[in-house]
Amino acid sequence: MHRRPGAHDLPYSHADFAQYLAPAQRTQADFENFRRRAARERGEAEARGVARLARELLPALDNLERALAATEAQDSGLTTGVRLMQGELSAALRRAGIETYTPKGEPFDPTVHEAMAQHPVEGADPGTVVEVYQPGYRLADTVLRPARVVVAA
Question: Within this chain, do residues 114 and 74 fall inside the same structural domain, yes or no?
Fold first, then answer.
């Protein structure tokens, strides 16, 4: 007669099982930690790459904005083309998570603003940004370029 094996027929005891289970669980936890760390590092590397590319493109965007300001009175095909190119470049930066900021009227903050000048301005509180020479750019909480501003004295 063929007998069905029971729990008492197992070749390993509960102590043996626990002895092998603990290292397996540690190995699994180590792998999960490694996977999370690798994903985080990959994301950080991607953000550094985006920030580096954006820093390289910002001068070109500034030059397009200067060209538009210089030809604003004219409404030629060239002006329209420059405006389209500037818009496409700005939109590409926004899609990459880069935002522009113009802090006019805000209190001066040296962590996100670069003071180019300071002088008294009637009706403005001291320490307030009264003019923006160049907008600032940031990627999440990282300032790629501070806004260049004039501050009321």
Answer: no
Q: For residue 15, what pLDDT band results from cuts at 50, 70 and 90?
A: confident
**Residues of the domain holding 105:** 98-153
DSSP string, 17-82: HHHHHHHHHHHHHHHHHHHHHHHHHHHHHHHHHHHHHHHHHHHHHHHHHHHHHHTTT---HHHHHH
CA–CA distance, 34 with 26 (Å, rounded to integer): 12
Domain of 127, CATH number, reads: 2.30.22.10
pTM recorded for the entire structure: 0.73
Q: What are the pLDDT digits (tens) for 141-152?
A: 899 999 999 999
Give the separation between CA 73 and CA 19, rounded to whole angstroms.
Answer: 81
User: For residue 141, what are the β-bridge partners?
Assistant: none
